[in-house]
Structure formats: C-alpha cells, structure tokens
Amino acid sequence: MSSSTRRDLNRRLKGWPGWILLIFVVVGFLVVGATRDTGPRTPDERIESISKRLACPVCQGESVYESRNTASNQIREGIRQGVNEGNLSDEQIIQQISVAYEGEELLVPTGSGVEALAWALPATAFVLGTAGLAFAFRRWQRAARMLGVATPEDYELVARALADESLDKTIDVSVDLAVDTSTEEPRLGTPDRS
Amino acid sequence: MIAASFNGALGHFGLLLMLTASFVGALSTGLAIVVGNRKGIRQAAVYAWLILAGALISVIAMQRALETRDYSLAYIQQVGSSTTPGIYNVAAMWSALEGSILLWVLVLAAFTAAVAWRFRKRADDPLVAWAMVVMFVVCAFFALVSFGPASPFQAGPTVPIGFDGRGPNPLLQNHILVLFHPPILYLGYVGFTVPFAFAIAALITGRVGEGWLLETRRWALFSWGFLTIGILLGGWWSYEVLGWSGVWAWDPVENASLLPWLTGTAYIHSVLVQQRRGMLRVWNLSLLVATFALTILGTFLTRSGIINSVHAFSAGQIDGYLLGFFGLVVVVSLGLIAWRGDRLRSPGIMDSPLSREGAFLANNVVFTVFAFIVLLGTVFPLIVEALQDRRTVVGAPYFDRLSMPIGLSLLFLMAVAPVLPWRKASQELLRQRLFWPAWCGAGALIVAVLVGADGWAPLIAFALAGFAAGAALRQIALATRRQGLWGLFGRANGGMVVHLGVILVAVALVASNAYTESTELRLTVGEPVEWSGHTFELVEVVGERDARTDVTRANVRLDGDRIYGPAFTTYLQMGQPIPTPSVRTGLTHDVYLTIAGTNAPVVGSNQAVLEVFRKPLILWLWIGGLMMAVGTVLSAFPGRRRRDPLDPVSARIPEPRKRITEPAVSDV
To answer: Residue B311's closest CA among B203, B238, B220, B390?
Structure first.
C-alpha cells in the first residue's frame, strides 16, 4: 500500500462514520458492563462495604475496615452477624451497631444541618470555578474581537521581526506587543536592558 | 535548655549556629540589597554554608546520640533502644515530633546551600539575593522551632543505671521503607521553598515576568517529583505494614501531603501558560504561595494534635509557632501580590477555550477544587466541633465519593490536552488527532468488560485511562519519530511519560478499590482450602523470638507452591502486637495474607484464622510511580528542539530606539 493510499484511508477512517462507530461501541460496552453490576454480591463483600462506612470508636480517624484493634474486630463481628441473619439491610445493620455502641459515627457527613456544608461547599466551589473560567474566556474573547483582524502591515512587521532575529543575535528592546515593557525584566546575571 | 551531654551540647550548638546564621544572614543580606552593597550581598553564600554546617552538626549529634543510646536526652529516652537494629536506629531520628523537625531543618539547610551554590555566579543579582533572604527567614523559623519548643536535644529526667528505652513505634521499625518515605517526602515539601522564595523575590524586586519561573522550573519539578514518590512510597509502606491491604486511607496526615501535591501539580501545568504566553502571573504566584503555605498548614494540622490521625505526633508543642508562620506567609504573600498588582496584569488574551492553555486552565480549576475538598474534609471535624461541640469523623467514603468525578475529569483532560495546539483548535483538527486515542479508550473498555469488570464509574475510568494513554503515546510516537530517543526528553515529552505513569496509578487504584475481594479463612494443617481461584494450606504455626521481638508466624502454602508467612509481631519493649502481612505479588493481582483478629494463633497449633485479600493490579501502582519518577527526570532535561522560552510568541513592533547585543543564554 502506497503512503498516499494509507494517508487517504487514515483520513477516511477519522471521518464522522468512524466516530459514530466509536460512540456505538463505547456506549454498548458501557451498558453491558455497567448493568451487570449488582453491588456487593457475597456476605464478605457486604461486611467490607458496611465496615468502610463506620468509624472505629477508639482509633485516630480510622474506619472499622482499616482498623485492626479489638473494638473494630467486635464491630466487624457484629456486622457479620447482621449480614448472616439475611433479612437486614445495610442501613438497619448500621443502625443496630450505632445503638449498641452508643454513638457510633458514620464516616460520611449527613446531608442536613451543619454537615450539609461538607457537600454544599465543594459543589459551590466547582460552580464558582467553572463560572469564573467561563467569565474569563468571555472577557478574553471580547478583548480579542476588539483587537480586530491582522492587517498586511501587521504581517509585515512580524516577518521583519523574524528576519531580524534570524540575521543576527540582536534583540529589539523598544516595545513588545507580547510583553508589557513596564514589567520586563533582565535575565539573571545579565546587564539591565533599560 | 542546659545540654546534658556532649551530644546535647553539640546538637544545641549546631542549631544555634544555624539560627544565628539564618537571622544574621537575612538581616545583613536584606540590608546590603537595600543600600546596594554588592560585597555584602555576596556574603549570603557564606551564611548558607554556615546554616548547612549547623544543621549537619545537629544531625550528626543526634545520630551519635542514637547510636550511643545517650539516655541523658529526653528524645533518646523516647525513641532509643538497645534492641533497635542499626538501620531503624538511624530512622528513629524522624520517628517523633522533635526529630522530624530536625530532618526538616537538615533538608531545608541543604536546599539553601544548594541555591547559594547554583546561583553563585549571580549572587549579587537582587532577585537571587532576595530569594536567599526568604530562604534565610524560613531557615530561621525552623531553626527557632527546633532549638526552642521542639528541641530534640533537651535533657531528660535522670534514668536508673541499666535503663533501656522503648525504641520507635513498632510500625516504624517494621519495614525498610521507613528509611526512605519520610526523607523523600520532606525533599518534596521543603523543595517548594525554593520556587516560593524566588516568587517572593520577584514580587519584591518587581521583576514579575517569566525570568524567575525559568530559573526555578527544575526546582519545582524535582520537588513535585519527590513529593509524588514520597506519597507513593507512603502508600507502599501502608500496604506492606498496616495489614488492611490498602494504600490510601484519606487520613489527615496523608491529606496534608496531598494538598501541596495538588496545588503543585496545578502550578507545574499553569506555569507553562505563563512561560509560553506571559499570562496567569497572579494565578501562578498564588498557586506557588498556596503550595508552600499548605506544607506549613499540613505540618500544623498533623503536629498540633488538633486532628485525629494514626500518623499524628504528640500534641501541642509547636502549634502556635506553625500557625503564626502560616499566617505570616499568607499575609506577606498576599500583601506583595496586591502591591505589585499593576505589574502582574497579564498582557495577553486567550483566544479560545479549545486550546492548550484552555485545557491547562480547566485542569487548574479541577485541581483547585480537589484541593479545596481535601482541605475541607480534613478540617471539617474541627468546624463541626467549633459550631456544635460534638465529635465527628470524615473518612474515606466521603473523599471517595467526591474524588471520583474529579479523577474522571482529570483523566479526560489528560486525554484531550496533549493534542490541543496553543491558541486555538478547530473541530476538524480535534477529530483527526483524537481519533486513535479515542479508540485506545474504547479498546481499554472492551478489554475491561471482557475480563469481567463492571460498574459505571470503574468502566468509565478505564475507558478514559485508555483514551489518555492513547493521547500520551501518540505524542511520544510523534516526538520519537521526529527526534529519535531525544523525543523522550523535554517538558512536553517527559511530561507524557509522567502522564502514562499517572494513568497506570489511576487504573491500579480504580481496580483495587472496586474489585478487591476479601474473606476470612479458617485453616487447618493438612486441609487445603480453595477461595477465589487459589488454594491455601496451613503448614505450621511457628514462633520466633529474639531480644527485640516475639513473632508468631502462620506458614501457608499458596497454590501448592511457595510458602507465605503472615505473622503477629510483638515488640517486647512496647508489648504491642502488630500484624505483619505477607503478600504474593503478581502482574494481574496480589494475594494478601494477614492473621485475623487481635490475638496470634497458638504456636504449634494446627489451626489459624487468616484474613485474605485478592487485590487486582496493585503492582501497576508501583510501576506507575516509577514511570512518574522517570518522566519527571526526562522532563527536567531539555529536548533537542528546545526553543528559548523567553522568546515572545507574537510580533514586535520594529521601530528600534536602540539595540544591544543579546546576552549569552542562561546556563540554567
């Protein structure tokens, strides 16, 4: 296959049909893969999942799942009993343990009261960040429109500047469109340009 | 503060030397800059070497005290023991608060001397001189803390003849990584002091262009690299030692190391926009200040005892100092940025969000929000306690839930950003450049589904990881086709190697979080048990005892082949038994064995209860970390087609008023 034929084939593959096929493949496999997920399947997986949601009552910020101490082992055993009973939901098991341990704590803040801040503040930060970015780009685009289209004179200036640089190792220090001269600085250890 | 021994006197002398040299160095260099005394400015290097000498003397004194078990010092009483093996005895220096500050002091002093040496030919440049002043001020602060409230050389109470200490915490003498993880992490933390110092110097001198960025690019890059490796080594250590088979628990101390990493990562991306386009000056300065300030805040959070953590040191000795210094750093930095506001105004504009710089900005927003979430989750218990006077815990499920969409966003940006040109991209160009990377993503998804992966989030993560890997490989392929092996060097191409490492880390984390299986196995000698495709057979339960430890080991034959020995180790001086897991590492998954419960099985018994984990793809986490380290080194060296980064990217107006010969290109 000649290189031009290969290039042509490559270009055709990258057209819209190739992308549409890609989208079908991705969506199809995602749906197949994701819908067969049924959550924790074995009792061990349920025990693990519940123990990750509970704080060890005597540790320094560890979960029951991570902690290896006696209190956490007892709670794990309580979870195991709850799971083995077979008719309790995860929430009911957690509730049972919470009562048994008088104030057992969840590792996830609730969605009410002060604890709702733990969810609301990140969402607010994300919205503010995205909005700030959108605002900045809008402002830049407005500024770009005000600059207008480059004129033949502009192109000539660029060409002359580039030719100037390639002919000798001198630099123009008068005015620079890209760099505000009021903030221009000398390289370290080199004579001041002003 | 009377030295109780030669080691104590020597250590105090070293710290005093450092403290004095730092104070005098900061004052005299600052004064010399103000009055224009070039000879005085050049003296900064002398102070830097004195600071290093002081720190070295103190560390040698501490190591000598540990080696000779000098129990006249309170710190040695706390962490020294005649039974601690040599290598762990060296590491005992940073096993408690005072010694960890001493390690910080040593690394900081080494960086200060390195800066003085690196910029020795430009010592009288005001930018360098002010940077040295800032380094001296930071040195003075840490020397003061180490000499005063957190002195490891304070005399201890008199001990009886024959006294022997308890040694370091058992978890700090249980794995060789204790020798490497803290020092490497500190190289990362402290290394960011250098770009921070130059940023402050740039603000003071008003030279807020791109010069200081270029001078500190490698310093920032290597600091970031060390921080990355330090964090990953911490994960490895946790995996090998703690017995719960995890690498990351969102513990406050772990979060404290992640915070500067997140802002540092945002910085090393957005700084490229400033180098290329002269934009984002305030933003880059803010990120750098945030990175440095977060190292101090993290140190405060973890060393003040106000937050519960398995890593936290003893409470309350230096919290006021650290909080005060954090406040000083923030106030001074923000004040300087406000003062130089007019000069920091960016001269350029961004043409389109669909551009390399647009992608970097989006990356920065995501990283910043991520850092905010980690900080919020870490300090949230304090907020609740302050408002409602009740205890609460914010743990892994909270961070996992919020970090998942952020991780997916970052993978998507990693896929798209490398193919984007600067300034503006057309739809057609994106369609062409992203096609094969996107099919790589589809391929990754297909493979994942075929091998049995399920769940929306993990599958999307695998697809995006494949997409990002395709984009990075495309860049590397193009660069190496053009330049041969040189195509692997330079910030763009080395950066792609780092991206590949990050992708491996992400895939390994997703797979191990989503698909780890675990169970409790009751094993009896001679009765093999099958679980998850493996056979476990208890061979024996043995005891091993020496002067330091009492070990009960359950030897288990795995798949009829090698024997693995999870154990319970009791450190006799401490009396605290800790589980010591045993791991069979493989390319597809690890088998992680640990003794269940809190009691060791009886030696000689024919039964043992094990907790067994099947952890997929964990090995690739460490391989990814190695690739990130290699990529960092590659990006520190210039590629063959390196352009002068100070060249303007747009035209100059050709009406020269005067010309000067261009100075020689900086050797940095």
So the answer is: B238
- Smallest CA–CA distance from B253 into chain A, residue: A61
What is the b/e burial string over B549-580, where b = at least 16 CB atoms within 10 angstroms of the residue's CB?
bbbbbbbbebeeeeebbbbbbbbbbbeebbbb
Would you say how long chain B is, in residues?
A: 668
Q: How far is CA A80 from CA A89, B520, B524, in A?
A: 12, 11, 22
Q: Which residues of B touch A121 (CB under 8 A)?
A: 372, 376
Average pLDDT over residues B577-600: 90
Which residues of chain B are within 8 Å of residue A29 when distances are taken between CB atoms?
442, 445-446, 449, 459
The CA-atom distances, in angstroms, between B328 and each of A138, B137, B404, B559 are 36, 11, 35, 60
Average pLDDT value over all residues in chain B: 88
Q: How confident is the model at residue B651 (pLDDT cuts 50, 70, 90)?
A: very low
String of DSSP letters for B293-348: HHHHHHHHHHHSS-S--SS--SSSSSHHHHHHHHHHHHHHHHHHHHHTHHHHS---
Question: Given pLDDT bands bounded at 50, 70 and 90, which one contains residue B289?
Answer: very high
On the question of pLDDT at A27 being above 60, the answer is yes
CB contact under 8 A, B380 and A118: yes
What is the residue extent of each domain of chain B?
1-158, 173-347, 517-618
Per the CB < 8 Å rule, is B369 touching A67? no
CB contact residues (below 8 A), chain B span 281-340, against chain A: 307-310, 312
Q: Which of residues 153-182 of A touch B (CB under 8 A)?
A: 154, 157-158, 160-161, 164, 169-180, 182
pLDDT in tens, B127-149: 999 999 999 999 999 999 999 99
Q: How far apart are CA A159 and CA A161, in angstroms?
A: 5
Residues of B in contact with A160 (CB under 8 A): 654
User: Inter-chain contact B454–A33, Cβ cutoff 8 Å?
Assistant: yes
Give the residues across from A170 on adjacent strands. Answer: B661
In angstroms, the CA B221 to CA B476 distance is: 20
Q: How far is B64 from chain A (nearest CA, A)?
A: 33
- Whether B653 contacts chain A with CB within 8 A: yes
